[in-house]
Amino acid sequence: MTRTLLSALLALAIAAPCTASATTPDQDRAREIYSKLISYNTAEGNGQVPVMAGWLAQQFRDAGFPDADIHLLPVGETASLVVRYAGDGSGGKPILLMAHMDVVAADPKDWTRDPFKLVEEKGFFFGRGTADVKDGVATLTATFLRLKKEGFVPTRDLVIVFTGDEETEMATTRDLTTTHRKLIDAEYALNADGGGGTLEEDGTARSFSVQTAEKTYADFELTTHNPGGHSSRPTPGNAIYELADALKQVQAHAFPVMWNDTTVAELRAEGKVAPGPIGAAMAAFAKDQHDAKAIATLAADPGSVGRIKTTCVATMLRGGHGRNALPQSATANVNCRIFPGVAVDDVRKTLQDVVGKNVEVTTIGSPIATDASPLRNDVMEAVARAVHTLYPGIEVVPNQSSGATDGMYFRAAGIPTYGVGGMFMKDSDAFSHGLNERVPVKGFYDGLDYWYVLLKDVGGKH
Fold first, then answer.
1. Is residue 27 domain-shared with residue 102, that is, in the same domain?
2. Domain end marker among 364, 395, 425
3. CB 418 within 8 A of CB 195
4. 13 and 73: one domain?
5. Does 25 map to a domain?
6. What whole-number distance in Å separates Cα of residue 433 and Cα of residue 106?
7. Residue 286 belongs to domain spanning
8. Consecutive H or E run containing 394
9. Domain count across the chain
10. Residues 376 and 1: beta-carbon distance below 8 Å
């Protein structure tokens, strides 16, 4: 079957843009799943991830997935869920489909609506996790159930991987990529928790990004020490002052400008549509990575600086042991988002050089550094075909995230990972991790159509 014919047939399978009063049975089922998932408070410490995973596992069993293809894997108080949609083996290695089940905490007293109840209002779905990323869990689940009901047999195994602590320790991800590596072996992974479509404020589709790289998340502690003493007898040395001086040095330090194929392609594409000086700087940098004016403009913009260099910023402080005592120690947490390909310890050494030998710099935990995933034409083209059934002709571009997802562990394990979340939304509607988190109702339903087309494409015969 030709690509053109496949695209035409898949486009015919897409439902017309829907409203809340004109939904299909498949959309209704997806909303039911979404609503149930939002009702679980899967923030750390509540023990609800395994409960939610168990409910999901039962939906797959009821749909006809064999028990042998459903794996609920406990890790401490949380868990991961792996569900295999068996193919006929003619299409090569499996493809992973990722999302995470946990959310950040939400205090109902602070919210306008109950954060753990899916509420539809004024064209939006409200609730904790609606955007990050229970929409992905619901959509992937609903798409598997729909394909199973239709009797679809993929040419290769499609494997859902729902992790349980992406927002905190990512222990379930480490467990999957080590203890259960064979269970998730795949040619590549498609991550619902990354990428996605951007709408202009008037609702016009701007572009769709495919997350092919993530910066490494790393925390470092900077600590100063002093003998201390009575506060009535100040000394020239003071641990808090010394730490403050060190932090000002970190603030003033500029990490070197860096780039890769993903960042150049992304800035080239965004430079065509981004307004004002930022758009001009993006275009100029994509053309010449040594353009000093473009670098200065991008480095001064909070939304752009992380695209062209490693960033480190102080986020927490603690120090002293008594109101009437000179501090014996002071500690600050410095959070770094490290450019792909740069070793974590190289950043630690840089910070040590910046603050000097009298400040102790230590790495917190065991952060994972990974390179960018290769720009695969087959992945980019399949995503473009799915996106263009919703918004014909918009540009699909690679993206490097300044944040971090489970994808970094899969990349480190040798599985190229691509963030391809199907949600289209405006920047002004982005409330992930914040109060009154929401997504457009249309964006959720369009995302169902997008994933249906994408999975039939990557898992079907060409």
1. yes
2. 364
3. yes
4. yes
5. yes
6. 8
7. 216-364
8. none
9. 2
10. no
The whole-angstrom separation of Cα 145 and Cα 62 is 9
Distant-in-sequence, close-in-space partners of 182: CB < 8 Å, separation ≥ 6: none
At which of 364, 395, 415 does a domain end? 364
- Indicate if 120 and 151 belong to the same structural domain: yes
CB atoms within 10 A of CB 254: 11
Which CATH number belongs to the domain containing residue 165 in this structure?
Answer: 3.40.630.10
How far is it, in rounded angstroms, from Cα 17 to Cα 380? 24
* Same-domain pairing of 139 and 234: no
Instruction: Give whole-number Cα distances, 439 to 9, 36, 193, 447, in Å.
Output: 29, 16, 14, 11
Residue 133: asked if its preceding bond is cis (omega within 30°), the reply is: yes
pLDDT in 10s for each residue of the chain, 462 residues: 444 444 444 444 444 444 445 899 999 999 999 999 999 999 999 999 999 999 999 999 999 999 999 999 999 999 999 999 999 999 999 999 999 999 999 999 999 999 999 999 999 999 999 999 999 999 999 999 999 999 999 999 999 999 999 999 999 999 999 999 999 999 999 999 999 999 988 999 988 999 999 999 899 999 999 999 999 999 999 999 999 999 999 999 999 999 999 999 999 988 987 889 999 999 999 999 999 999 999 999 998 999 999 999 999 999 999 999 999 999 999 999 999 989 999 999 999 999 999 999 999 998 988 889 999 999 999 999 999 999 999 999 999 987 779 999 999 999 999 999 999 998 888 777 778 899 999 999 999 999 999 999 999 875
Condensed to tens digits (0 to 9), the pLDDT of residues 190-203 reads: 999 999 999 988 99
Report yes or no on 306 lying in a domain.
yes
Q: Is residue 375 part of a domain?
A: no
pTM of this structure: 0.85
Residues 61 and 100 occupy one common structural domain: yes
Establish if 301 belongs to a structural domain.
Answer: yes
Same domain, 346 and 222: yes
Query: What is 87-151 written as a DSSP string?
Result: --S-S-S-EEEEEE-------GGGSSS-TTS-EEETTEEESTTTTTTHHHHHHHHHHHHHHHHHT
Separation of alpha carbons 334 and 316, rounded Å: 7
